[in-house]
Amino acid sequence: MRTSNTTILIVDDEPAGRDTLEAILYQQGYDLVFAADGWEALDQAVHLTPDLILLDVMMPGIDGFEVCRRLRADSRVAEVPIILITALDDRESHIAGFEAGADDFVSKPFDRFVLRARVRSVTRLNRYRRLHDERAKFERVVSLAPDGLIILDHDGNIRFSNPAWGQLNDANDTPIAGSSIERYVHDGEYFRQHVFRVRENGEPRRWESMLLGTGGMQVPVECVAGAIEWEGQTAIQVIVRDITERKQAQSAIERSNIELSQAYDATLEGWVAFLDLRDKETEGHTQRVTNMTLRPAK
Fold first, then answer.
1. pTM for the full model?
2. Domain end point (choices 91, 109, 141)
3. Closest Cα to residue 57, out of 27, 90, 19, 24?
4. Do 148 and 240 form a contact (C-beta atoms < 8 A)?
5. What is the pLDDT confidence band of residue 2, given thresholds at 50, 70 and 90?
6. Range of the domain at 164
7. Among 22, 62, 132, 148, which is disulfide-ready with 66 (CB 3.0 to 4.6 Å)?
8. Helix (H, G, I), strand (E, B) or coil at 140
9. Do residues 75 and 33 touch, judged by C-beta distance below 8 A?
10. d(Cα 9, Cα 45) in Å, to the nearest integer?
């Protein structure tokens, strides 16, 4: 079964040219899309954002050089690689193509093996560039996050960490990537169990743990873990939040509740003693009244 994650836009005003390129590239597993002129190429490029554009130079209307310039001027598709296909093999044409923004040339009539090799090379480089850009964007975002973030492999080793993670456990000046998570947590086995359950069933998990901070001090944290793809493999992302203030607030509430309970018990005991005293005073008063009533009768 033919599968592909790579889309190639083929631009040629000649049906025979499009058919030839399709015959050469289709069996290589690419998803092929076609445009018959420069205007259609511009529309298709913006709509699809292909991984590569194979662009014929000699076309009516706007030629390949102009299409190339317009693509490079459009921020939505400016990074898409372009290979110009041309029967022009002179030095000036190549210079004009590179100045327009082309990444490579293939001359007509072309060698199918050379064409396949160049397409494979350009699409591979573009894929690496996209991965690099996505990772750089990800790292910029998480570097500003207030919560710690780590990415673990299946063995529980750290593949990536942000600055906030280093601040939580005083590890900013030591290498973190490649080290075991157990180096940084008080309850390593308990931590691993949660991570492995995420790996097994793919369901996010939330739990509390203790990090080893400065001088062996333990830092209470809340952890939220989920499965992600990292560098082409399944990994576990863990967001770690310092809950020291929350724990302190909970402890303060618990102490207040205890103090209130003790105060209530003390107050209740006081009222019991007071009522008991009142009962005794009432009993004495009743006895005196009875005695005074009985005296004249004697």
1. 0.57
2. 141
3. 90
4. yes
5. very low
6. 146-242
7. 62
8. helix
9. no
10. 7
> CB within 8 A of 225, min separation 6: which ones?
194, 195, 198, 204, 205, 206, 236, 237, 238, 239
Residue 132 sits in a domain of what CATH number?
3.40.50.2300
Domain contains 215 = yes
Question: From the CB of residue 246, how many other CB atoms can be counted at a distance below 10 Å?
Answer: 13
pLDDT in tens, 23-77: 999 888 899 999 999 999 999 999 999 999 999 999 998 999 999 999 999 999 9
Of the residues 121, 141, 161, the one at which a domain ends: 141
In a domain, 165, yes or no: yes
Q: What pLDDT digit, counting tens, does each position of 193-240 carry?
A: 888 888 888 889 998 888 886 666 788 889 999 998 887 788 999 999
Token pair, residue 13, equals 């005003």
Q: Are residues 137 and 174 in the same domain?
A: no
Same domain, 65 and 188: no
Tell me how far apart the alpha carbons of residues 105 and 56 are, in angstroms, rounded to a whole number.
10
* 8 Å CB contact between 41 and 65: no
**189 part of a folded domain:** yes
- Residue identified by tokens 């913006």 is 46
